[in-house]
Amino acid sequence: MFDIQDELKKLPDLPGVYIMHDKSDAIIYIGKAVSLRKRVRQYFQPSHNEGIKKKQMVEHIARFEYIITDSELEALVLECNLIKEHCPKYNTMLRDDKTYPYIRVTLGEDYPRVLFARQMKKDKSRYFGPYSSAGAVKGTIDLINKIYCLRTCNRNLPRDIGLDRPCLNYHIHQCEGPCQGYISKEEYAGKIAAVLEFLGGNYGPVIRELETKMNHASAQMEFEKAIEYRELLNNVKQIAQKQKITNTDGEDKDIIALAADDVDAVVSVFFVRSGKIIGRDHFHVRVGSEETKSDILASFIKQFYSGTPFIPREIILQETIAEKEVIEDWLGNKRGHKVSLHTPQKGMKNKLADLAARNAQMILNQDKEKIKREEGRTIGAVKEIEELLGIKGINRMEAFDISNTNGFETVGSMVVYEKGKPKRSDYRKFKLRTVAGSDDYASMYEVLTRRFLHGMEEKNQLKEKELPEEYGSFNRFPDIILMDGGKGQVNICLQVLKELGFHIPVCGMVKDDNHRTRGLYYNNIELPIDRHSEAFKLITRIQDEAHRFAIEYHRSLRSKGQVKSVLDDIEGVGPARRKALMRTFQSLENIRNASVEELVQADGMNRTVAEAVYRFFHTPAKIE
Fold first, then answer.
1. Residue 297: per-residue pLDDT
2. 482-520 pLDDT, tens digit each
3. What are phi and psi of 283, to 5 degrees?
4. Taking the CB of the first residue and of the last residue of the chain, which one, N or C, has fewer CB atoms within 10 A?
5. Where do the domains of the chain lie, and which CATH numbers do they carry?
């Protein structure tokens, strides 16, 4: 259960993106924040007002998640990517097709230029960005052209060398004149190499030079020039916020990293599609103290990609794993093309892996307490039950309940818990046919008989056909059976198990006069349970779940108009004869106990239908 107030306390005071989900787990809003802690908390403060639309959105929030980033700029671009991917309902102000600018270096030309671009294309150019400020990008391009004296013209060089006069930039010493052949291709390439180094992150020399010039101009009281250097310096610093959220190679890749302690690990997977991070998922993993990060990653990759429909061309890992080549071949065969597992030591990919690792560590730290609480509610509670009953090795528990309404069609439910958690795929419903009226003992006898007979039959079929156990549904038998009731219900279950040759512990969940669980009935002894223990809470949950499942089935049948009377299932008995039988015998129990001769006396009945009614109530239960 997601406790919003509890999760708000765990929010980090870091930049990032927050994602709001509704009760159906659909994403309804995505936003960015300089401080996740301050921004997300604002939504849930009564005094905070962001308008009717945001208020309506908050009312639908069932849970939230978040991704931390290194800067507000990264959060902004990641927010844009995620909104375009998921189109949340309440993000109307962000649904435009806004794109962020790039710096493009035209390496496909003999004399490359540095240009402003709104889109990345698959050409020979190299792209840097995206960046949040178009003004800062344009200012930085101007700065680069001034510092390195690069050409800005559209001439086709070297074809057009010497065909026209040099432009004004040459005369004001802002261009070396490659259009006249005044600078060699090699010299010009050296300038471009310096530009690429600058854009790649080596901003130090340029920043120091601009600071020196700004301070000198200020000291000389040349304030206009000092302001110009200051603006250029600010542009460079803004560009210096390296952008990892969008990668310039435009490729599909997954970034996988983990955080681990002695018993738990969290693996974070960032999904990059067409060069943009479009999502993230994380997985909790149980580990042994002797397992290394490399071992955990290798095991996770095999399990994760065995079930995922898409495998990217490149998988970036935090650690080098064993069997790297074998796993690459396996993934390549599944994908149909080569797959590379890469562990970068530096550069942008290494920073992406670090970002994934930081998010994994954050989730591990914050979820550890929740994981411990969940284990106490499940595995810990099962261990308490084992100690109370003196039984070891309880894994699968099955509980049964009966529901009917004034003699109308009786139904039974079977709920399954494994390791203290409900396994809903193994829940089963029973529609009873041989029990009339509200005879819970007879109903339970039929339900249990059918459950175990069906399981035995299924087991034999699987054995004959050499199929795995997972193929069936009833063939797995419980380690303990929990009956909704005391001595009577337990004895019915023990009778069925004895008749079918099973030896399974049976325990009754005894309730008090207020219909609350008060203890367990086991081996002819009622054992009290501490009402504050996890065992008591688990028993109560199982008891309530079995009751809920039976009631819901009964209601669903009634809503479909299927529950009128058990008599409706008898061939030859329609509405008129059903009414005649009920008028004559007053109750289903009297009909069940009547002989054929007595049944014939009802209005509209003949011997054939009377015999059908008699057979219906006196034929042993069949497996459905």
1. 86
2. 998 888 999 999 999 999 999 999 999 888 777 777 889
3. -135, 135
4. N
5. 4-94 (3.40.1440.10), 102-239 (no CATH), 253-376 (3.30.420), 383-559 (3.30.420.340), 566-618 (1.10.150.20)
Question: What amino acid is encoded at 496 in this protein?
Answer: V
Burial class (CB in 10 A: 0-12, 13-18, 19+), 539: buried
Q: Quick one: which H or E segment has residue 108? A: none
pLDDT (tens digit per residue) in 280-333: 777 877 665 567 888 788 878 877 786 666 788 889 998 888 778 888 888 888
Q: Label the pairing between strands 340-342 and 314-317.
A: parallel
Angstrom distance (rounded) from CA 48 to CA 182: 65
What is the C-alpha to C-alpha distance for residues 511 and 508, in angstroms, rounded to an integer?
9
| Helices and strands, counts by H and E, the chain | 20, 19
What is residue 471's three-state secondary structure? helix
Give residue 317's identity as a one-letter amino acid code: L
Report how far residue 594's alpha carbon sits from residue 557's, in angstroms, rounded to the nearest whole number: 28
DSSP assignments along 140-181, one per residue: HHHHHHHHHT-------TTTTTTSS---HHHHTTS---GGGT
- The pLDDT of residue 623 is 40
CB-CB neighbours of 353 under 10 Å: 23
Integer Cα distance of 339 and 327 in angstroms:
9
H-helix or E-strand containing 367? Answer: helix 347-377
Q: Which long-range contacts (CB under 8 A, 24 or more apart) does 602-606 make?
A: 602/577, 604/576, 604/577, 604/580, 605/577, 605/580, 605/581
- pTM for this model (two decimals): 0.42
CA angle at 399 for the pair 394 and 404, rounded to the nearest 5°: 175
Joined tokens for residue 226? 């000092």
In degrees, to the nearest 5, what angle opens at C-alpha 37 toward C-alphas 35 and 41? 120
Exposed e or buried b per residue across 586-595, where buried means at least 16 C-beta atoms within 10 angstroms of its C-beta: eebeebbebe
Rounded CA separation 530/519 (Å): 9
Cα-based distances in Å from 565 to 264, 559, 618: 54, 14, 17
Count Cβ atoms within 10 A of the Cβ of residue 5 and give its class: 0-12 exposed, 13-18 middle, 19 or more buried. Answer: exposed
Question: Residues in the chain with pLDDT < 50?
Answer: 92-98, 242, 562-563, 621-624
Strands of 264-273's sheet, edge to edge?
276-286, 264-273, 253-260, 314-317, 340-342
Q: Which residues contact residue 32 at a Cβ distance below 8 angstroms, ignoring those fewer than 6 apart?
A: 15, 16, 17, 18, 72, 75, 76, 78, 79
Measuring CA to CA, which residue among 546, 455, 452 is closest to residue 497? 452
C-alpha–C-alpha distance, residues 516 and 97, integer Å: 58
What order do you get walking across the sheet with 16-21 strand by strand?
Answer: 27-33, 16-21, 63-68
Residues 6+ apart with CB under 8 A from 503: 497
Please say whether the beta carbons of 283 and 266 come within 8 A: yes
The helix, strand and coil proportions of the chain, stated in percent and rounded to the nearest 5, come to: 45, 15, 35
